[in-house]
């Protein structure tokens, strides 16, 4: 910021110097002297012409004409009193001009130049180390949404001047992943991967970003990266988790069970995540035709209004909520769009919250949404429907006929 103000002062000084040089270089023209010299030249030329006309016999009274010419020349000589004129000193013009240049330059910048925003930007850029530590969990206080935006701005500023900083690109990609910004996450992770193609964290981050894409080629690339990470001496649990959920989404249930089982062996039965993995394994086994975990279930028959336009590659998301209408689902499932009407069944295997199962609900409502872009965090333009309150064991019916 200091360099900026120094630059503005230099430019203003240059402008003032140019103005002063212009004023000093102005030459005063002596109009009376120029007119006198012109009259003399005209007088001599006229005398020559009269001489020639006299020789040719065209003029009889040459002397009278010469006297008239002399009188005309005398009449054109200005009075000395009239030639006096007042002239302004260059400083009289320079001083107010300098004041005007300075006032207009800084006044207009303060009004239109966004000095406050530039100062805020500089302050945010200086907080990059502090915000990075907050993001990495080195502070007890969670980051606010404004602080996340500040961190993103500071990171982009740093990466503009240091485009070869792979750690910065990785951090920017992680922030974009948290915000479900697929495009930014993929671009940032790709740049980090190009800089550090053998770094395990970079590979994992790039694979996470590619997994969020709807492009099958990018998803295959993500699977290739994850499989290469399986060959490392140390395997991150997130690698197995991504492979398991990807296999489950592709309905490759045996592979999903295999990955989740490996995760269980790695964390042990004392880990709080062990029970959640057990439920995931049981859910996959149920999809393979094996008996599901005993517990109550809810069958949902879903129809779609004739006004609804079903986009290609959309998905159906069904969620079960307490009868009070709480937005947090107790159980949820995602299905390929398929055809309608259709019936789906949700049970304890679809529970979303640890320690609270679908079978524990006294009453419930069911919501269904057609996810058009593959991003569960965005709903603009999606069609949805909601059932009337029901009880476990009932067959619930709902119609998808509303749009966000």
TrEMBL record:
Keywords: Cytochrome c-type biogenesis, Membrane, Repeat, TPR repeat, Transmembrane, Transmembrane helix. SUPFAM superfamilies: TPR-like (SSF48452). The gene is ccmI. GO terms for biological process: cytochrome complex assembly. It is found in: Cell envelope. TPR repeats lie at residues 166-199. PROSITE patterns: TPR. It comes from Vibrio chaetopteri. GO terms for cellular component: cell envelope; plasma membrane. It comes from the Bacteria. The chain crosses the membrane at residues 6-25, 93-112. Residues 117-274 form the Cytochrome c-type biogenesis protein H TPR domain. NCBIfam families: cytochro_ccmI. This is C-type cytochrome biogenesis protein CcmI. The keyword Transcription regulation does not apply. Residues 298-401 form the Cytochrome c-type biogenesis protein H Ig-like domain. InterPro entries: C-type_cytochrome_biogenesis (IPR051263), Cyt_c_biogenesis_CcmI (IPR017560), Ig_CycH (IPR056412), TPR-like_helical_dom_sf (IPR011990), TPR_CcmH_CycH (IPR056413), TPR_rpt (IPR019734).
């Amino acid at each position: 910021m200091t360099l900026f103000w120094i630059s503005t002062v230099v430019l203003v000084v240059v402008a003032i110097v140019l103005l002063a040089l212009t004023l000093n270089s102005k030459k005063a023209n002596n109009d009376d002297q120029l007119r006198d010299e012109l009259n003399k030249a005209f007088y001599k030329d006229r005398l020559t012409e009269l001489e020639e006309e006299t020789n040719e016999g065209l003029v009889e009274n040459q002397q009278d004409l010469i006297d008239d010419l002399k009188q005309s020349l005398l009449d054109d000589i200005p009075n000395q009193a009239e030639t006096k004129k007042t002239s302004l000193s260059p400083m009289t013009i320079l001083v107010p001009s300098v004041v005007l240049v300075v006032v207009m330059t800084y006044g207009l910048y303060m009004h239109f130049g966004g000095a406050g925003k530039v100062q805020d930007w500089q302050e945010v850029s200086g907080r990059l180390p502090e915000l990075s530590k907050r993001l990495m969990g080195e502070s007890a206080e969670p980051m606010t949404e404004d602080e996340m935006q500040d961190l993103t701005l500071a990171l982009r500023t740093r990466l503009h001047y240091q485009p070869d900083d792979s750690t910065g690109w990785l951090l920017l990609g992680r922030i974009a992943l948290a915000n479900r910004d697929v495009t930014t996450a993929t671009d940032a992770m790709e740049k980090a991967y190009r800089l550090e193609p053998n770094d395990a964290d970079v590979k994992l981050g790039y694979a996470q970003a590619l997994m969020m894409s709807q492009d099958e080629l990018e998803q295959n690339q993500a699977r290739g990266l994850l499989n290469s990470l399986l060959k490392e001496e140390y395997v991150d649990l997130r690698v197995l988790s991504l492979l398991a959920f990807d296999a489950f989404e592709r309905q490759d249930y045996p592979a999903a069970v295999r990955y989740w089982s490996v995760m269980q062996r790695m964390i042990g039965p004392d880990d709080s995540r062990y029970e959640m993995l057990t439920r995931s394994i049981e859910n996959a086994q149920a999809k393979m035709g094996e008996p599901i975990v005993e517990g109550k279930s809810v069958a949902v028959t879903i129809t779609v209004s004739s006004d609804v336009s079903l986009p290609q590659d959309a998905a159906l998301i069904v969620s079960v909520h307490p009868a009070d209408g709480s937005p947090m689902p107790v159980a949820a499932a995602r299905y390929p769009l398929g055809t309608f009407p259709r019936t789906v069944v949700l049970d304890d295997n679809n529970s979303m919250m640890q320690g609270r199962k679908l079978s524990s609900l006294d009453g419930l409502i069911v919501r269904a949404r057609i996810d058009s872009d593959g991003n569960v965090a965005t709903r603009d333009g999606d069609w949805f429907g909601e059932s009337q309150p029901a009880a476990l064991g009932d067959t619930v019916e709902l119609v998808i006929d509303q749009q966000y």
